[in-house]
Amino acid sequence: MRKPKHLFATFFNTFYYHLFITKLQILKSNLFFSYLRNHKLGIKDIVGKNRTGADTQITNRLTEKIRKNMGKIIALANQKGGVGKTTTAINLAASLATYEKKVLVIDADPQANASSGLGIDIREIECSIYECLINKAAITDGIHNTCVEGLDIIPSHIDLVGAEIEMLDMPNREKIMREALAPVKDKYDYILIDCSPSLGLITVNSLTAADSVIIPVQCEYFALEGISKLLNTIKIIKSNLNPSLDIEGFLLTMFNSRLRLSNQVYNEVKKHFRELVFNTVIQRNIRLGEAPSMGIPVIMYDADSTGAKNYLALAQEIINRNNE
Ligand SMILES: Nc1ncnc2c1ncn2[C@@H]1O[C@H](COP(=O)(O)OP(=O)(O)O)[C@@H](O)[C@H]1O
Ligand SMILES: [Mg+2]
Q1: Is 147 found in the same domain as 85?
Q2: What is the Å distance from ligand 1's center to 289 Cα?
Q3: From CA 79, how far away is CA 206, in angstroms rounded?
Q4: Which of 79, 83, 87, 230 to mutate to test the pocket of ligand 1 (most atoms within 8 A of CB)?
Q5: Which atom of ligand 1 is nearest to the CA of 109?
Q6: CATH (domain of 115)
Q7: Residue bearing the CA closest to ligand 1, atom 6
């Protein structure tokens, strides 16, 4: 027969085990992660001090996961124009904000379409990404609120066209964006950089600052044209400037299931890049083209539209991938 002392120990072990599991379940919640971030706490500040080796391992893994998920910078890049970079920046950002993530969009294209698409009157902007990169203005002065709660933007300006030449003589000219973003990186869950259709110095800066890159691919003829050049640029940046740069995913855009061509492009991209292709495909949807003229993301323009649903699904997929 077991001694009462052992029974007592078993009872307490079970009790602490359940207590620990409950704590872990709470820890899993994103709200809790935000709380930790806001209060600059680590998991070990929350879970009790008397932990076993296994507990410590689990909590270390969680702490690492939180660090990894803090302020992820994702660049949207493809030197091809009109493939859906800006549409994705605006609507992915708004969808992430809908899932209560804190999001910052950096408009790194002198055409400033992401800025106007999020309701910014670019004629009234005094501090844009140009001032932050070239005149060393404080990055916080460049941050503007948008009509979406939890979504901020650093707008662009046509002056950005000349910025690449002005940057040429600057020290560490490829790392100017990374240094500029450092003070705000951990204030956001996601920072999305909308790149211009070029592989110039501003795009190199964006890729050097980024943790990962989303490559939108339009379901059209010559969809993969130029991709090898982009991949080569990413490879060079990875080996010389930013070793931790990952490919977040290839995103098929403007998909039309009735067109054989769309399906062919989908199969082709999937064959080349396999699991790097997002499960979510962005379908061609007229509402996505209309919303920017109202200065709002599609989710505010027509929440029931296919475009709104596709970008919500993409946001969910990205959140899931990053919480794995
Ligand atoms: N899924 C879509 N369905 C319909 N129109 C789209 C879609 N994605 C983008 N567009 C339209 O295609 C054009 C180019 O898209 P944009 O996002 O500006 O490309 P990029 O930033 O790569 O140049 C824009 O007029 C945009 O409204
Ligand atoms: Mg664009």
Answers
A1: yes
A2: 6
A3: 13
A4: 87
A5: 21
A6: 3.40.50.300
A7: 289
Q: What share of the chain is helix, strand, coil (3-state, %, to 5)?
A: 55, 15, 35
- Tell me: do 152 and 249 sit in the same domain: yes
Ligand 2 centroid distance, CA of 215 (Å): 12
State the DSSP string of 249-289. EEEEESB-TT-HHHHHHHHHHHHHHGGGB-S--PBP-HHHH
Could you give the 3-state DSSP secondary structure of residue 248? strand
What confidence tens digit (pLDDT) does each residue in 162-196 have?
Answer: 999 999 999 999 999 999 999 999 999 999 999 99
Ligand 2 centre distance from Cα of residue 291 (Å): 15
Cα atoms in the Cβ-side hemisphere of radius 13 Å centred on 47? 26
Query: Contact, 115 vs 195, CB < 8 A?
Result: no
Which tokens hold the place of 70? 């803090």
Check whether residue 228 and residue 312 sit in a common domain. Answer: yes
Q: Helices (H), strands (E): how many in the chain?
A: 16, 7
**Same domain, yes or no: 171 and 251:** yes
Do residues 267 and 62 make contact, with C-beta atoms less than 8 angstroms apart?
Answer: no
Task: Let me know whether 25 and 86 are in one domain.
Answer: no
| Pair of tokens at residue 222 | 């010559």
Render pLDDT for 99-127 as a digit per residue (tens, 0 to 9): 999 999 999 999 999 999 999 999 999 99
Q: What is the 3-state secondary structure (H, E, C) of 60-113?
A: HHHHHHHHHHCCEEEEECCCCCCCCHHHHHHHHHHHHHHCCCCEEEEEECCCCH
Q: Are residues 294 and 311 in the same domain?
A: yes
